[in-house]
Structures are given as structure tokens and as C-alpha cells.
Amino acid sequence: MWVGGIVFDIYVISILLVPEVKYRYDYIGNIEVDLGTPLREVSSKFLSVGLEPWLMRNDWEKFNTSSLLLQTLVGGLAPAVLRMGGTSANFLTYDPDASYDRDVYGYQELSNQYFTNLNNYEVKDFSNFTMTGQDLSDLLDFVEVVNMSLLWDVNQFYRDPLGTWDPTNAHLIMQEISKRKQTVLWQLGNEPNIYDHHNDFSITGQQDALDYATFREELHKVFPEVTVVGPDVTNPKVKVNCIADDKEVRSNSVVFLREFLTYGAQDLDVVSWHHYYGGGDVTIDDFLDPALMNNLTNQLEQMVAVRNELGPNLPMWLTETSTFYGGGAPDMSNRYVAGFLWMDKLGLAAQTGIDLVVRESLYHGSYSLLSPDLQPNPDYWMSVIYKQQVGGRVLDLQLNTTTPTVRLYANCLSTSSQHYKKGAIVLYGMNTGEESALVRLGEGIDDTEVLEMLLQPTDGDLQSRSVMLNDVVVELTTQETLPPLDAWPSGVFGGLNIPPRTMGFWLLPEADAQACQY
């Protein structure tokens, strides 16, 4: 017996009330969950989303912030942080009087020294552009309607002749936001440790910290209280099984973060970094690979260790993360198969010390939650279920198995779940293997009802654009509301039956966990 928790012992399971046996379930192990004390706790905004500012240059494309459909879809992910940031943030100029979203400021018209040779930038779309007063107003209205908090990424490429960050344009944005009396979170720049990878401009961790000191000072001239997030470095070098093609570029992120925090931790409220599993040539198998998932554990531990040493009281956020960088893998990062990496990242991040995860992106790119025509991709529906069912208290779960393709996590059940009761818990996870798996629960909850929400691809196609919840295709039927996403009795007592290539949420309303008595 585990002190403060319950050990789920191995014993014979009875499978009841199953009308149809689709799979042969092979026993693969048992789980142990500490039900006595939470491992840690995250906020209801833990799963958050991001957008690139370049949308405003293109007149928002089909991302119409006044659209009822869009407001319904994004509102389904609330509460959350909406980060407006990324590479394009360093190319944005705010002009409250401009009436169109074009580059109305050329090189020679800027009052500051611009340190970027845009001709060398790999992504042709990134060039100077203007955010109008109407753009900013539309964005602030939108985050208010959908119950999200805006995280604004300020252009760091404005420099004076001495190379110091120039806050002049950022100050205009601050003043406009202060008139609205809206709370906005702030960050400066994007992936500063690799500026020289794309531009004729580089910055050290110490210089970045000095920029942040100026940044915070400018914010306090306008706002009595601020939340400053940074420095948004890339993920650290992975030690094994790396499929990325830029190991040498990302190897300096830990060094940069250490230097930044040494000089600038006092000017931060949140430590932030980005994570992608890699890039280059990607296959379906990469999305299913437990070894690739385990790389994240190593990276989380590296970054959390630096934070614990140099900023021990600061929360840590992943402010930009998805499957593979460069917009994702076409026909994979926006399909059913992408959900395995996304769900596993949420579980590992919560368990390992991350306080908030910003999914890149809400809209645009192969890794987006919404398609260009505002149709939800499979990861959107999984994210909505996560928001509805997974509470903030994280439980310590140990899966005793030699089968690496089954991965499980545990939290208290969300108080917003229609099945919520005091002490209820939720297990969530996946089976990426080709065989069905039986995971045994044990003494204390072996007769507790288990409600399941199984996510599977339509027609068994891992590259499906649609997803089934408990054998029913999930789809929108109205612009005003999301469809009901409910659990049903699993018909299994004493265990979890996980079909192959399946993600799931298993609700235990009667678990009576001491850790979840709220």
C-alpha cells in the first residue's frame, strides 16, 4: 500500500456490459495513482493558444474576429491566454492612424536603426508591416468576447544607433491599451537566441536582459501592475533520437537562458520558452514514436532545472509549441495522428513543472487547430474535451508496464465537467501501438464506475481530418454552440481497455480521492 495514495494491484478483471467485442485486449500492466496529495496544480488557462501577428498584414484572412462561428469555436477553449506573437512580431509597426495593413514604413522612414536584413530571412512572408488602430481594437474586442487574456509580443528589432532597444513604437501600443483598461500580458521579441540564424542581427542573454529591464520600466510608466513573460528561447538540444535538422542552432538555448536569468530574472514574472519535436522530413511513425515523446521529458528537465536555480519563484510557460516547426508537417500535423504528440505534451508538461502551454497555432499552418475555412481539426476537439474534463490538480501516476506505446496521466476531474463530484479523477492518455491494451486498476476503485471518451480516426485513417468520439463523428451543427461531447459507461470494471491507435479520457466520478476534495 502506498502512503497517501492507492496502489492498483494486479488481479483478475471482469469485463461486463460490453455489447460488442471489437478487439482482443492484451494485459500490459497496472497503474498506481497517488490519490492522497496532488503532485502540483496548474490554472484553468493551462491549455492556451497562439496566433501570428502577420494575420493583420493580410487583413486577417478569414479570421474574422466578429464572426459568431469563430467566437463560438475559440470560446470553447476558454479560459485561456491568447498569445499574439511569433517571428512576425519583430516586423510589426503600430500606426493608430493608418487605414490599411501594408508596409507604410520603409527602411528610411523609420526613426530608429533597423538591424535586420530582410533579404536574408528564409520565410519570404516576413517583412515590415503595419498594425492599424482598428486592428488593435478588433483584437482587444475579440479576446474580451471569448474570455481570454491577451499576451502581446512586442517588436524587439527597433534599435537606436547604439544598439539599445527603442521603446517608442511599443509605447504607442501601451498607451492605446491603457485607455481600454484591459489586462494584457507582455513579452519582448521571439526566440532571441537564434536571431542570427535568420538575420544580420544577434543578441546575447545579457543584452536581452537589459532590453527587458527597459521594457519593464516603460510598462510601469503606463500600467501600475504588469506581467512580463520571457525570454522565449527555443527548446534545448535533445540528446537522443533527434529528427530535427538544426541541432547546433538550438544547442545554445540553455546557455542563453542561464545568462538571461542571471542578469534579468528580477524583471520577469514568467520564464518562457518554445518547444517543437523537430523539423525536416517527417513521417507518420514520428507522431507515434514513444522515444520522440520521451525527448520532451529531457528538455523539460533541463529548462526547469535552470529556472529552479536562477528564478526559483517564477512560473514557467511554453509560450509557443506544436508538433514540428515551419508550420507543421502537411497532411499530418492537422490530422488525427497529431493528437498523440499534443496529448502527451500536455500530460508531461503538467507533470514536470510547466504552468501553461500555448498551442501554436489557433489558425494558420499545418499545425493549426482551425482550418483556413474555420473548420475544427481533430486536435481542436481533443483540446475542448481536455478543457472540459481535466482539472488543475495534477496527480502522480505510475504506469507499471514494459509496453512503451501506452502512456497515461491523471488529474482531478474539472469542476466544469458535468460528471464532477468531490474526489472525482480523470485519467487520460493513449495507445499508439497496433495491439489493444488492457491496463488494470486495483483495490479501492475496482468497483468504481468508469466513463470513457475514446477518440479514434474516421475509417481508421490516421490522416483523417475528422475524429470520432465513442464511435460517433464529431462535427459542428450550428454556429452558436459546440456539439455535446460526453462520456459513456465503459462497461469495464477494474481496468481500462484501450484500442490500438486511440486516445482517451476516462472519468472516475466516484473515486473519492482525498487530493480532489474541492
From TrEMBL:
One Pfam family named in its UniProt record: Glyco_hydro_79n
Protein name as catalogued: Heparanase
GO MF: hydrolase activity, acting on glycosyl bonds
Family per similarity comment: Belongs to the glycosyl hydrolase 79 family.
GO cellular component assignments: extracellular matrix; extracellular space; membrane
